[in-house]
Each structure stands twice: as structure tokens, then as C-alpha cells.
């Protein structure tokens, strides 16, 4: 049956099940706080990579927790997953962590699902999954801009741009949670320049683009995936009406620095 699922249904199903697995690992009470992140990461990763190799054996695969396979570079379709985005937040039982399951086709983020297992917006107790193939209308924009930033290491460019915009800073955990916050109306801009990898942004970018948001590098260039070097250090996700202004301010800030 899983072979007959659409790619979108498969991505969402995998992200949701991995999220439930992670909750179960945490609630088992068997791991210290120090060991929990690794246990959760590895357990969820084993589920995701085994499932994808079973149901999409011809596709490439890149996971944060799996040894890189250079064969993916010759593939057009490549699944890119992050079993736990926001390991610290997961261990602290916060809601701002995520599971990323996405697909890049010829380097472009075309499909993704981001599970937020700690954020139960549906009231079902199973968390929330946002999908690129099922976009929802964006909430109305507020009068005062809000920018999500790292709760532990806010990027200096983001802080400087927020000051110029008189935007409220909203500290938050994982990249996926920050990107989804813009979709959910909890923020308007997500600006990051502190270093990331392809698995940190690929699925969130696919979902954000499908919801009509601007997604790019902070110099305005496209985000390209399934590269030999998977380091992809910066990211801008925002409502389209803010994109050109934010990109211009980033350029100013970098010149001033």
C-alpha cells in the first residue's frame, strides 16, 4: 500500500510517524537528558531511512543522521530528511522542534512535510503536520513585524535587520519550527545566517514556498539542494511583500559590518 501512496502522502505519513516514535522514546523514561537526543535521533532516523529505501528504492537519500551516499548526486529525485530538528528543544519537552521529510528534484525543493509533534493544533493529540501539497491560507499580517530568531544564538544580521525594521524578535528553537511559525501567523520573517545544512531547510522551504512565501539565500540567490557539499549556511523565509526590503537591509548590514 505504501508504494501506492503519493509522494506528498508518503512524506506526511513518514514525518507524523517519526514524530510519534520520538514522543514514545522520550516518554519511555529510559534515557537521561544527555542521552535522549541521540537515542531519539537514531531511532527516528532508522525508521525514516528504512521506510524510504523500502518504498522508494530508486530515489536518492540524504539524512543528517546517516552516512552520506555519493550515489545520490546522480539521482534526479532525492529525499532529504532531518529526524529531529531541534534536538535540545526535543529533550527539554518544548514544542519548537520538528521532523523534516522532503524531496528535491534536480536540486529544487519541490515537496516537503514538516511535523511539529509538540504542537497539537488539531486537538487530536498527534501533533501538527504542514505539507507542501496541502497549503493553507496565510493568516492576516499584523501591524508590527515579528522575526523569529534562534533562542540561544540569534544571528547578528537578523538582530540588526530587526532593529531597522522595528520588528519584534521571537526566540524559537528548530529551523522547521521557525519556518512554520511564518505559515502559522506567529511570525512574518525568518532570517538565518549562522550556518545550516541542506536537511535543516529543504523540507521547510518546500512547505513555505507552497504557502506563497519568499524563500532564498540571504543574498537573494536560489536555494539549491542535493549538492556534494551539503553546507547551506543562510536562509530567508518571509511574506513576499517584505522580501525586497529585507534583502536590501541585509546588504546594508553586511556592508556596515
TrEMBL record:
The source's superkingdom equals Bacteria
Q: Specify one Pfam family.
A: Inositol_P
Recite the UniProt keywords alphabetically: Hydrolase
Q: What are this entry's molecular-function GO terms?
A: 3'(2'),5'-bisphosphate nucleotidase activity
EC numbers, comma separated:
3.1.3.7
Principal EC category: hydrolase
* Presence of the UniProt keyword Hydrolase in the record: yes
Keyword check for Cell cycle: no
Matching entries from PANTHER family are given as: 3'(2'),5'-BISPHOSPHATE NUCLEOTIDASE 1
UniProt protein name: 3'(2'),5'-bisphosphate nucleotidase CysQ
Amino acid at each position: 500500500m505504501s508504494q501506492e501512496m503519493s509522494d506528498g502522502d508518503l512524506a506526511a505519513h513518514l514525518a507524523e510517524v517519526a514524530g510519534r516514535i520520538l514522543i514514545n522514546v522520550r516518554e519511555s523514561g529510559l534515557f537521561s537528558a544527555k542521552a535522549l537526543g541521540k537515542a531519539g535521533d537514531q531511532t527516528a532516523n532508522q525508521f525514516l531511512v528504512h521506510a524510504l529505501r523500502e518504498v522508494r528504492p530508486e530515489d536518492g537519500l540524504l539524512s543528517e543522521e546517516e552516512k552520506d551516499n555519493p550515489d545520490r548526486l546522480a539521482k534526479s529525485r532525492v529525499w532529504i530528511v532531518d529526524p529531529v530538528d531541534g534536538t535540545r528543544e526535543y529533550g527539554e519537552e518544548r514544542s519548537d522542534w520538528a521532523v523534516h521529510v522532503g524531496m528535491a528534484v534536480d536540486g529544487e525543493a519541490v515537496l516537503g512535510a514538516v511535523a511539529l509533534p509538540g504542537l497539537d493544533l488539531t486537538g487530536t493529540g498527534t501533533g501538527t503536520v504542514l505539507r507542501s501539497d496541502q497549503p493553507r491560507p496565510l493568516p492576516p499580517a499584523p501591524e508590527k513585524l515579528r522575526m523569529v530568531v534562534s533562542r540561544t544564538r540569534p544571528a547578528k544580521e537578523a538582530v540588526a535587520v530587526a532593529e531597522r525594521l522595528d520588528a519584534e524578535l521571537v526566540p524559537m528553537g528548530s529551523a522547521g519550527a521557525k519556518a512554520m511559525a511564518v505559515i502559522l501567523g506567529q511570525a512574518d520573517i525568518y532570517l538565518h545566517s549562522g550556518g545550516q545544512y541542506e536537511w535543516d531547510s529543504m523540507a521547510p522551504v518546500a512547505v513555505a514556498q507552497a504557502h506563497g512565501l519568499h524563500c532564498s539565500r540571504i543574498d537573494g540567490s536560489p536555494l539549491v539542494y542535493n549538492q556534494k557539499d551539503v553546507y547551506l549556511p543562510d536562509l530567508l523565509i518571509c511574506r513576499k511583500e517584505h522580501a525586497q526590503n529585507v534583502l536590501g537591509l541585509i546588504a546594508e548590514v553586511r556592508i556596515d559590518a
